[in-house]
Design goal:
- The protein is built from five helices and no strands.
- By secondary structure, it is mostly helical.
- It has a single domain, classed as Up-down Bundle (Ferritin), CATH 1.20.1260.10.
- It starts with a helix and ends in a 19-residue tail after the last helix.
- InterPro entries: Ferritin-like, Spore_coat_CotF-like.
- Keywords: Capsid protein, Sporulation, Virion.
Amino acid sequence: MPFGAHETMEVHEILSEKKGMIEHFSMYEQQCQDPNLREMLHRHIQSAIQGYNQLISYTHDYQTAQAKMMPMHAAHNHDIRYGLHNPSPTAPQMGTARMNDQSIAGSVLSAHKNSAKNQMSAALECADPNVRQMLVNGSVMCANEAYEVFNYMNHRGWYQVPTMNDHTAKTMLHHYQPIPQGTMGGMGTDMM
């Protein structure tokens, strides 16, 4: 079963991205100081390897592999720390041989966010339903892992969540109203 030119290029880009993620995450795992971050990186490397190998296996022999979805990091609204609390100024660190844990976590978060977007975009361009599903699963995996990294950073004050006045947020969001039950896409019920 040959692939279309467009999906071949998309899968090539995703495999290249995954290869880079695995290499970078492996380097970060060696440099990080926090054992919790190291363990998280180890798990994320394993899931990236699994996704990478699954795509390669399918593109080599066209046999669908079962994708194992990792559970999303459990978090509740009350677990997130909202508001800005004296964020410290930051600037790029130049000329250092070692990254600190905050920089590592930020780089991992950016990699996951970009990979989630790139894999979903690639999935939308694929005709092969198995490749498409593998890319969607990879996108969801990266989104879940990005959320886990966000939580890690948020609890350390490294990723603060700005807020707006409660009244302003409600006014903006309550502008939208629900569609009454029984409404069928603009068709009245008498037309049925």
